[in-house]
Structure formats: structure tokens, C-alpha cells
User: Fold this.
Amino acid sequence: MNDFTVDNVIDVLADYIEPIAGVCQQAQANRVPMPKDQFCILTPLRFTRLSTTRDIKQDTGSPSTSAMGYTEVRQADIQVDIYGQGAGDRAIALEATFASSYGYDTIKAIDARLAPLYSSPAIQAPMIDAESQWQERWTLTLSVQAHITVSLRQDYFDKAEISTEMVDIKVN
Assistant:
């Protein structure tokens, strides 16, 4: 149905972030322990509509595979929590490179449907972990532009049979 899902957006960002800030994991995975050492947690916050939906005909010539696509541009805001030794430096490196030509070129090379917009400032947000120890954590929000198309089955016809019949017309 959706050609570019929330999970797809997270995967593209994870591929971009990992060389800069460490191994990435999507948030809200139940019963999954937090990784050790340096890592990042990505949490999708919102997908705000930036455009009007456009219709795209996807007629394949076969009633079983023809569809109608509805495409739009959305701004996806993804919170990135960076943990472990040097989290502050890695957060600053991510913030600095995300809105640069490096960030744009790298993300577009991974998936052309996604483009970086901007980053919030990195802030320190330490937390107490399950062992009652302070965990170094820095957080920032990355905003990206995502091009999403939702496709639904649509019947089309490509031929019609027309016949004519004589009809008596009565004029009053």
C-alpha cells in the first residue's frame, strides 16, 4: 500500500547515522534490552503533510494489477537519542553533517525519496538506567522530507464494445 513506510524512513536514516554516531535501533521495540557501549535510538515523532495529494494513474493493462496512486510530500521528524561514551561529540557531528552537502548527497544516494531538511540543536538529556546508573545521552530531532505514494487497487478498462439499435421515436 505505502511505497515508503515509517520503517523505511528509519532504515535510511539509520544507514546514514551509523558511521557517524553508532549502531541504530528503532524505539518502542518491546522486550528488547538497550544495547551496550555506543548506540542510537530512533523514534518517529510525526509525519506532517507538506503538499496536497496528487493522483497518479497506475494502469498496467491488467485489471488484477492496476491501481491508483495518491502521492504527497511529508516532513518526518525523527528523534535521535545518542548514548554512550562521547555521545555529545557524536551528536554534534551528526547535527553538523546532517544539513550539509555531505548529508544531502549521502541520504539521496541511499534513497532518492528522502532528503534532509534541518536538525534541532543537540541537547544533553542524561537518564538513569535499569541499574540505577547515570547513562550519558544526547538527543536531537532530524527533520526530513519524504515522498510517499499510497496505492490502492483501481479497475480500468481499455476497450468497449458498442452496438446500435433502431428505436421508434414518437414525437408529440
In short: The chain is about 20% helix and 40% strand. The beta strands are 23-26, 39-49, 54-58, 67-83, 114-119, 123-124, 127-128, 134-135, 137-153. The radius of gyration is 25 Å.
